[in-house]
Structures are given as structure tokens and as C-alpha cells.
Amino acid sequence: MLERVGRHTHLFVEEDFKSHAGLDLHWKIEMDALDEAEWKCIARMIMEYQTEPFQAAIGIPRGGLKLSVYLNDYSTQNNNDPYLIVDDVLTTGGSMEEFKKDYFDKKKVFGWVVFSRQKPPDWVRTLFQMPIL
Predict the structure, then answer these.
(1) What is the pLDDT of residues 1-43, one digit of tens each?
(2) Mode of pairing for the β-strands spanning 24-29 and 12-18
(3) How far is 21 from 91, CA to CA, in rounded Å?
(4) Which of 59, 66, 81, 102 can pair with 55 through a Cys bridge, CB separation 3.0 to 4.6 Å?
(5) How far is 102 from 56, CA to CA, in rounded Å?
(6) Which is nearest to 58 in space by CA: 43, 77, 71, 44?
(7) Which residues touch 60 (CB under 8 Å, ≥6 apart)?
(8) CA 129 to chain centroid
């Protein structure tokens, strides 16, 4: 339990930064703070709510890549099943929509994100949702 004593990366960081969508934000969710066991646990948490089979989990670079590795342990590899698109933090939903359009335009997909700062698109589910204002 104490093997990570001395680690100084925090999951929630108060700092001004510009989001991928170009928004000025004042705090960030630093997913690099998570280790492999935590990513594996998050995948398991998602699978407790995920009832639809999927042929493969595809992570949006860079935030969704680690999550996709662990979610692929649950994939069917069946070409008839939809793809699962995943990301770590959704701010506007733009990255999810853009990735879906660019790579999966005519294919059946659904999505999951770990954290959502606002309401995600209808085809995306969220493990942890910030309050919607």
C-alpha cells in the first residue's frame, strides 16, 4: 500500500492551461498520475456498467490509449460487434466526435470516458461526471 510513497503527481491540479478545444481552464485532471493497477481498475469499473459487447476498444491518442489496453481484455474480437472509442477526460466532446467521424464514419460505435467536464454526446457514457451547469 505504501509502495508509491514519494510520488508527487496529483490527479487534480490547480493551474491555468488551454484545453485541446482551445478553452482557458483553471484546473486539470492529470491522468498521468494513475498507475497501471488504477487503469486496470477503471476498466473493470466501466465493465460493471457496460452490457453491450464490443469487438475492440480504441483509445483516442494520447489520453485513451492506456484505458483501451485494459478494456481490450473484455473485447469480443467479433467483427459484427461495434467498436468502443475511449478517452480519459472529455471537456467539450469535440475529440470524441472528431475521432468517430475521421476513423469510424460508417461503423457502429459507442464511447466511454473516465471523466467528463460537461454533458457528453449521446453515444458516450461517463464514469465520473462533473456537475452540468
Answers:
(1) 445 555 558 999 999 988 877 889 899 899 999 999 999 999 9
(2) antiparallel
(3) 8
(4) 81
(5) 17
(6) 71
(7) 85, 86, 87, 95, 96, 99
(8) 12
Residue that the C-alpha cell 449521446 belongs to: 122
Residue with cell 492551461: 17
- Rounded to the nearest 5°, which phi and psi values hold at 129? -110, 125
Q: Which residues pair with 83 in a beta bridge?
A: 56, 109
Do the beta carbons of residue 105 and residue 92 sit within 8 Å? no
**Which amino acid does the sequence have at 57?**
A
Cell output for 55: 469487438
Which 8-state DSSP code applies to residue 47? H
Q: How far is it, in rounded angstroms, from Cα 91 to Cα 106?
A: 25
User: What's the mean per-residue pLDDT of the chain?
Assistant: 91
- The structure's pTM equals 0.89
Contacts 24+ apart (CB under 8 A), 126-131: 126/90, 127/42, 127/45, 127/46, 127/49
Q: What angle do CA 116, 127, 73 make, to 5 degrees?
A: 120
116 exposed, middle or buried (CB, 10 Å; 0-12, 13-18, 19+)?
buried
